[in-house]
Amino acid sequence: MREVAWILNIALSTLSSWNNGFDKNMKPYCIPQNRGKKSKVTVEIVRTIIKAAETWENNGKRIRIKKFCGHLNKEYKIELSDKSVRQILIANGFMEARARKKRPRFFRSLQQTIPNGLLGVDGSDFVVWIDDQRFVFNIELAVDIKTFCHTAFAITDSETSEAVVAVFKEHRSGYGLPIGILSDYGSANCADSTLEYIKKHGIEFAPAGPGNPKGNGTLEGAFSQMKQALGPIRIAASSPKQLAESILNAIVGLYIKMRNKICLQSKDITPQKNLETQLPDENQIESERRRIKEHLESKKLSEETSLKIDRVNWLVKHFGLREAPEVIDRAKRTIKGYEWEAITASEKAFEKAVRRDSKRKNMSYFFGILRNIQRDIDDEAYKSYCRKRYNYHTMLKIERQQQDMLQQSQPSIVHIVSMLEKAVTISVRYVKELAMRKAQEWIAELLKSRSYAGVLKRQLLDAIGELTHLDQEQKRNIGNLVEQFIG
């Protein structure tokens, strides 16, 4: 390999790295991805796409992005992503902008690091059939978020604060007090008696919003596994409701005992042993308590969000909207994801709409206006982005400006001749060598932008001939340097 590197005039380390990238059959171990590198979007490509789009529409065809990209690839050998082609068409008026923004934004996830740090609590309905009679019960379940250990449960007719507190007490008797409680915004979880019990024992309450995988997701997974393991519960007997409840109580208790004896995937210890043996020390408990508090602090409303919520209260009061409390709460949660510009414009449009028809005086109609106005703002912002990036006239203008700047930065014929004159007339050796080297660099730079070197050579010789303060010998020497540098 060393001799090959010498022959090819390549560093041995470079040749060795090339060799390590192929197997004995010269097949590469890893094929580099060319995503985003196949075609650079230039003015010529944009011009070609515009002409292709004009021809496409003149033939009475509607532009479908997938089919049109296939046409560009087949007919014009243009390999661009659907996204880039769509933005070029939007920037030049061939497609409408459709921004896809999800509002309101998602909730932050609260991770867990130590056992018995966060206790998840939630309820789910279970059905027991006795002959043809159907009984529905609510099972309130407590699961340790870190270890997935099922610690307590309670069976009631419905999800109540008493059931939630009973689950807390059962968990406390078996495993001690957790640092924090994680649950949804259900009425039972946020009831006064529940919050009073949590506050009394110094537990942090961290309610999780919808879509939070570290909130209700843990409990939902537990309930899913439980229902899958138990299957439909049917008892063929004419027994009262208490019989059904006692049977369900035994089944759930058995399931929880067996579930806590099964190791989680990629774990060597059961959830129950993990919770009982890996007890955190005081420093870990204090650190975890501080981390949960920091998470809760980060979820507090900002000044802008508070102002948006105040606008909902103002709407209700100003227009006299008669809405249920849960509708207003939903409006306060939803309005956080919209921009002030859209909210202000929606208020003006809503006022005009209500003046024309009083039946429109409701929160649903206002948010319909707000959603449409926000969508128009998002679409216009996306269209502006596409225009700045891919509009043909804008790209052409930028290219011309770049060419002008390049021409201004390039040395002129006068500068080169002046430098050659110094190389011939000045007697100091190092100054003479510096002038010759600089003139040679400038000539080489000009040759890169010229397709024919003879034109540059003739321009330089004509400029030398106009130097009246030099004698013929000096002009001849400068001309020889030009012949030497251009060839």
What is this structure's SSE topology?
Elements (H helix, E strand, L loop, with lengths): L1 H7 L3 H9 L22 H16 L6 H12 L5 H10 L26 E13 L2 E12 L5 E7 L4 H15 L4 E4 L8 H9 L3 E4 L8 H15 L2 E3 L5 H19 L11 H7 L4 H17 L4 H17 L5 H10 L5 H17 L6 H28 L1 H18 L3 H13 L3 H20 L4 H13 L6 H15 L1
Parallel strand pairs: 1-4, 1-6, 4-5
Antiparallel strand pairs: 1-2, 2-3
Helix pairs in contact: 3-16, 5-15, 6-7, 12-13, 14-15, 17-18, 17-19, 17-20, 19-20
Could you walk me through the main structural features you see in this protein, from its secondary elements to its overall organization?
This protein has 487 residues and is an alpha/beta fold. The chain folds into 3 domains: 118-296, Ribonuclease H-like superfamily/Ribonuclease H (Nucleotidyltransferase, domain 5, 2-Layer Sandwich), CATH 3.30.420.10; 303-387; 410-486, no CATH class. Helices cover 59% and strands 9% of the residues. The protein is built from 20 helices and 6 strands. Strands 1, 2, 3, 4, 5 and 6 form a 6-stranded mixed beta sheet that branches. α5 (82-91) packs across α15 and α6 (161-175) packs parallel to α7 (192-200). The protein is elongated. The chain starts with a helix and ends with a helix. Residues 210-214 have low confidence and may be disordered.
